[in-house]
Amino acid sequence: MSRGKLLALQILVAVAVFLAWHVVTTWSIVADVKTMRFFFSTPVDVFKRVFTMFLEGSVYRHLWITLVETILAFVIGASLGIVIGFWFARKPIVAAVFDPYVKMMNALPRVVLAPIFALWFGLGIWSKVWLGVTLVFFIVFFNVYQGVREVPQVVLANARMLGMNERQLLRHVYWPAALAWVFSSLHTSVGFAVVGAVVGEYLGSAAGLGYLIHQAEGVFDVTGVFAGMVILMGFVMLIDGIVTLVEKPLLVWKPGETRTV
Length: 261
What we know:
The protein is globular and about 75 Å long. Helix content is 82%, strand content 0%. The chain has two domains: 40 residues; 211 residues, MetI-like (MetI-like fold). The two termini are 17 Å apart.
């Protein structure tokens, strides 16, 4: 399927969703119009609110704070996941020793960590950053770990037969093999970095998109809540697009479609 056709179909899905939303909040098909608008607002009102927020400039400060928290959570979590994932994959004994602890830490609901991080790091950006790190780290870690372990033994044996040392194996065999797994996890973890930042802001903050949504929810401003969600979705798509731009030149050697998620 051509890229243009794919894009057209994706836009068609969005148009269908907004059209259905508009229909059920304009005519009494599902329930009374006032009731539907109280719970779901209307797409026209939501986009008017988004436009007003950008026009007045009230949203830029909140976007910037959420962006900083997301980028820091993404960079720190992904870096730790890549380094420790490689280390565990190359050292089976270390992986076996830490295996139960990794599983226990991964099983912890991240929301319960938010108050702990707020206590440790305060209500500034770092409590949100570390909440995001706990989400990003495990996604990247497991993908890198699996990607390195999936390298065929035949390839490794041939590389060693040609005289490669451990550093050359890491550079020419392990890293290219794991790169597709890494980028696959990065696409997913971008969304989780945003989730960590927004949940942290929602639970305790004085700025950010999560704070905006929480404020709107507190006064039953459904249009404000949906406007915050629309901005948040556009924000995630923008960051994901940046990851895709970085991914393409690095995976140019891979045949076929580069994107895996």
